[in-house]
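Anyone? Bumping this.
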Amino acid sequence: MVIWLFSHKWRVSLLMSKLEEFHSMFYPRSVAVVGVSTNPQGWGGHAFIRRLKKVGFPGDIYAVNPKATNEVHGVKAYPSVKDIPVRPDMVIVSVPARRVPEVLEDCIAAGVKNVHIFSSGFSETQEEEGRQLEARIVEIIKRGNLRVVGPNCMGLYVPASKFTAWGAPPKGVGNMAFISQSGGHGEILSRYAQELGIYFSKIISFGNARGLQALDFLEYLAEDPDTGIIGMYLEGMSDGNRFTRLVKEINRTKPVIIWKGGLTESGARAAASHTASMAGEARIWDAFFAQTGAIRVNSLEEMADVALLFLHLKPFRGRRVLLLGGGGGNAVAMADICSRDGLTVPTLAEDTRRQLAEFIPLAGNSIRNPLDVWLVQHNLEMFRRCIEIAAADPAIDLIIADRYPHDDDMDDDGPPNFAEQSQRVDEFIVEFAKNNPFGKPLVVAVNAPTNDPNGVKAAAELRLKFALAGVPAYPSQASATRALSRFIGYHEFLAKTQEAAEPTLASCCRS
Amino acid sequence: MVIWLFSHKWRVSLLMSKLEEFHSMFYPRSVAVVGVSTNPQGWGGHAFIRRLKKVGFPGDIYAVNPKATNEVHGVKAYPSVKDIPVRPDMVIVSVPARRVPEVLEDCIAAGVKNVHIFSSGFSETQEEEGRQLEARIVEIIKRGNLRVVGPNCMGLYVPASKFTAWGAPPKGVGNMAFISQSGGHGEILSRYAQELGIYFSKIISFGNARGLQALDFLEYLAEDPDTGIIGMYLEGMSDGNRFTRLVKEINRTKPVIIWKGGLTESGARAAASHTASMAGEARIWDAFFAQTGAIRVNSLEEMADVALLFLHLKPFRGRRVLLLGGGGGNAVAMADICSRDGLTVPTLAEDTRRQLAEFIPLAGNSIRNPLDVWLVQHNLEMFRRCIEIAAADPAIDLIIADRYPHDDDMDDDGPPNFAEQSQRVDEFIVEFAKNNPFGKPLVVAVNAPTNDPNGVKAAAELRLKFALAGVPAYPSQASATRALSRFIGYHEFLAKTQEAAEPTLASCCRS
């Protein structure tokens, strides 16, 4: 049993912490890959070796192949784990499912502790053979006291130790962790988020979870000083009560963003075929989110969208938005979207509107809120005056500015130096967001509904430019608003439960 | 009063049809633009002239400017409409709001019938001056029996007559019409949809609707033989009962897709500032959609997504989807999305699965449904066998295939000619969809969650390639499923109401 001591930062176990216990797994000095064919392409053991070498894993790599004599793919090869002269910190198993039990026995014999079973073909096949094999490996894992990630998963992705044999090559080391029952989702998020400047501390793909559970990884990340934001993709959960307690606790200091897959009947069936998970009922998960305050999302894009806010914005609680953009129909759509997602679009104060009316003509514009003034798209002075006056209004908590990438069709009706002027507005937005003169956060929606590949690219470039400059930028008003609503909801939950919990904080710290 | 005669195709009025009545407006032989400054850039009267010339409007163009003597922007100029030697078929008014009444009086004096009031600054300003001005022009319009589009709008966009002074330059003449209270939405949709090969018969931006109403345009489009699909963006509606009757009738032969803006409190306020519309209550609109069977959407993207199906798919009614793609986590997400949008993902028949199991290994794949077989992304033979066996299953009504654009990271783990092989699968999909061997429609979801501008572009290119080849393709599984659900819902409504209405069809044909 683990007894927790309360600390304001985080709790420290009296027994060995997960941080120490798992260290050799996340920061291995040597890795052996079992099941390495000589085929240079495709998936399998050799692909792990190829990718470890590609990202420059600094430790030793060994290959295991029954017919091995000397070298495979440029690394030393041995017929069995037992034949490797040193004890590898991590063993990646990539052999057909029926051969996994004997490899695990070899690991035990060789004194190996950390094992990643990449192989699939267990209970997720829903065939008797797979189920029996899985029961056998569970028995071996327990008997050998092995730390097993998997089976049927991509394993670990750790940019800091360059133990990243899958996913997009790390562009940096960051403070977001992602625990995922799907390796594919890990692959996608590693690429999708990094492109917005969201970098990772760890990504953990754990598949069928017949050794280590999501809970074990969560405990580790709770202690991990390099992790500040935790994302999870879950298909099933075996110990709901413990999970709820743990997420409730962690979420107070490290926001936990969760995508639960398989909540519909069809989705649950797919989850059973994917990781043999029992998906659980929707109402149980509703209760879980209500109790823990964990942030609920429904896709990887939504997960990255929320993470971007935690990365760049300070906490705030108000829900009253200033919408700054152009186009009357667009203004109606933006206001509808905000209202539907629980944000409000208050009318500006009489005095604010009087000041705006001094330089904005009534015809063709609206100086209420949304502040619908097409000229702000490319007229810096107009943009500056609009935002400085409107953002000062006490009715406003935050700002969403909509921006368009420049394109030839628009330039046609604009001033001759449209693109250049528009870019100056973008630069001002970055400065304004950095200095944050009214303490009111600003995010950008790059509203470019287009199917033209070049237009799509221009919009992605503009969005990227903002995100990399520290201004959260979204591909649509809808995604910006949804992310903001969740971010504000998180801080509201924290404030509410902290107020409620303060007097009895000590009593709830034993689990 | 108009008396309708029933016809199986459409009803024909005994009085002059809207088709005849509005002909000179949609197909003008001459256009005069009132309020033409000498400034070559920016918006205003001169911009209408510039753009009409750019698209090659074949009729005569005249400019009106009080100080005009001879020529402006290369067209003949006159001080007043009354001074133009011929009677223009259409007059575009682009003067400050307070000068609009006198221009309308000039039009009456000159015998002009069709007027587009581009000018804004009327009741949408929510100022007394604007309201009074609007009341004055309403009086003049009635007295002069003018056909007025507007005020505060972009007017008409007719690719067939090249009377398209705004929006994206027409890439073709098509059978979709769009009636919009927002000119900006017309601009965007004209660009967004055309890039997917959806071309327009007419786009009508009608703003404050103080002359012709949405209903007038709807009656015209009902008769228009060049229009097969009708999209609408509405902020307000003045005659709900007549509108409901009309849409109910039209929707039987020409699908009516409607985006209603301003249904939230904030959105309604924005609509009042935009087109001075009373937005109406949400429950009234719920009832409208339930009664008419019109297709409800919430954005222009959703409108184009549905239109793409009407353009390329034959009617079908089943909701049982075969999901064909790769990735276990992706399979769970796809199944969840389908279930949430009212489609089902049935398990394949025992016999189908037996046939699939003959060549698909159990480990790493799932041969239930979703059919999760990563190899289908680039292995044509595997794709062909999968789809030919699974699509033949009687449990299946339609197919969604997910596709990825090729990129370097993926190619790394694939065969050396990954891109080429993947392209062969794409080509096969086009052939399969065209021949439609099982009479089961196929759509594609280009699932490329990426923020990399080049990745975004590659995905848009792949999507475009499918759409232009006649295979509806979507940027995500979610958008594909949503569009399909609406398309099926439309045909379900039609089937249900036709069955119910058949015996009393004659009796409901008088309004």
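Late reply, but here is one note on the structure posted above: Chain B touches chain A through 87 residues (CB under 8 Å).
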